[in-house]
Amino acid sequence: MSDGKLENAETVLEVNHLAVTFTGKETVHAVRDFSFTVHKGEVVAIVGESGSGKSVSAMSLLGLLPRNAVVSGDVKLDGKPLDVSYLSPEIRKIRGRQVSMIFQDPLDSLDPVFTVGEQIAEAVRVNDPKADKATVTARVIDLLKSVELPEPDTLRRKYPHQLSGGQQQRILIAIALAGRPRILLADEPTTALDVTVQQGILDLLHQISRSEGVGVLIITHDMGVVADIADQVVVVRNGALVEAGETVRLFHYPQNDYTRELLDAVPKTPLLGGSLGSDHAAAVVSATGATSAPAPAASDEQPVLKVENLSVSYAPRTPDVVHGVSFDINHHEVLALVGESGSGKSTIVRCVLGLAQQTGGTVMVDGVEYLKQRRREQTKTRHKIGVIFQSPMGSLDPRQTLAQSIAEPLIYALGVPRGDALAKAEELMDRVHLTRDMATRYPSEISGGQRQRVSIARAIALNPELLIADEPTSALDVSVQKDVIALFRELQRDLGFACLFVSHDLPLVASFCHKVVVLQHGQEVEYGPVESVFVHPTTDYARKLILSAPLADPEVQHERRRLREQAATA
């Protein structure tokens, strides 16, 4: 958010009346009359739903759109007109130099067969062809230091797969900085990262903007990220500008109904982060209101899922990747597993599904230690478990229609005749609020939110008692996420299943789940009701994790950043 340092700052990028049209069988007006400015040392966020034109706008500024894209408008870089038409020689001159881009998935951007040092060196040589080997190496090490990576001389010799997701993203930032750019375009740079790593990347981008005077244009659907880092916000819908303004003003006094809808879709949390030690911050967070799901009435029923002292190791005589984890879930309950990447969340899920073998402890479904059952009985018990994966495109067969995908478990698990299964699939589409005329469509022909509804319909096809949801909303924008969570609540109310929910979105966990397990290095560090763990965490790790989750309130995030910077210089 704005901190008063940017008054009268020079304009680096000025975009007026930008328009992008894709030609072909159908003409698509992806961006229409879009205008914004970025000043030196300023962070500007472009926000909006999927398909609103956010990424297309940024890509057009670097000439990264396909040949059938027609780009028009008045664009100025450092006050000089910039031709943004396809194959413009001006664009090629500034790309990677005056303007650089950081993409969403570093593994899609980094070459797996070259070390990260070689890839940074390539960017250095492009910008300084006459530099000798020693100069290039020194510059690579300087860039690694600038993105706060430890032991740069050792790290530059590693390959992308040897680094964590956060380290890979820092490598992309180092490559982007190689040309000493005036503008950094960051397209969803933290979407796939857990909250503590995300905080580190956001802090780094903020520090680069302030210390180097680089203008940052960040594209995101995460309003918490916007509140944390942005000085100005540009809201776009259907390719057109809806509202723009200073971050605090826009969050507290939105002028447009669509902006209000985006902000209202953000989960409200019960005092999440109120332990800042700031009366003001606590008051602001409290004012957002507690909307966490009401806990089911206490009962003596047998838990649907009971995990006791679970340990998992991937090889003999090696340390456990999960050790001593215990929890239980009843009907109508949602329990969340949270923690950093590598904390053991996915391993626990794999173990519950029988895809990873436990080395200690028990996993019981409906009172039965089903992983020790005979194959036939184990298969019957597995039918009581439904799974929703993170990426519906990765879990749905692209060659099957939506109805065929939903009907598949009925056909193969229960032996339901194909015709009856397809009819049941249409009934399930009704349950997840998809129209029956979509039954013959394919996954590629519908939106991300609709694909996730298909995954949910498929998961409940066998009427499971336990539903496992692995990051089911991480790729969805806030308004679609809100609708999917509302659907979850409706189905759980009607069907009564227990839910094991894996997520790194702590505000969502606080608004949706009843209980939470906080994991660190495969061990359970906190377990209890969401309200208790998030409001009064008892461990330093849980407190750090909670405070790392960006809230959709610029004033709270500004106070958090001030305290972090104060602690770093103490």
TrEMBL record:
Keyword set includes Aminoacyl-tRNA synthetase: no
Domain of life per record: Bacteria
GO molecular function: ATP binding; ATP hydrolysis activity
Family annotation (InterPro entries): AAA+_ATPase (IPR003593), ABC_Ni/Peptide_Import (IPR050388), ABC_transporter-like_ATP-bd (IPR003439), ABC_transporter-like_CS (IPR017871), Oligopep_ABC_C (IPR013563), P-loop_NTPase (IPR027417)
Membrane association type: Peripheral membrane protein
Protein keywords: ATP-binding, Cell inner membrane, Cell membrane, Membrane, Nucleotide-binding, Translocase, Transport
Localisation: Cell membrane
SUPFAM superfamilies: P-loop containing nucleoside triphosphate hydrolases
CDD domains: ABC_NikE_OppD_transporters
A biological process from GO: peptide transport
Record's GO cellular component terms: plasma membrane
SMART domains linked: AAA (SM00382)
ABC transporter domain: residues covered: 13-263, 305-546
Family: Belongs to the ABC transporter superfamily.
Protein's UniProt name: Dipeptide ABC transporter ATP-binding protein
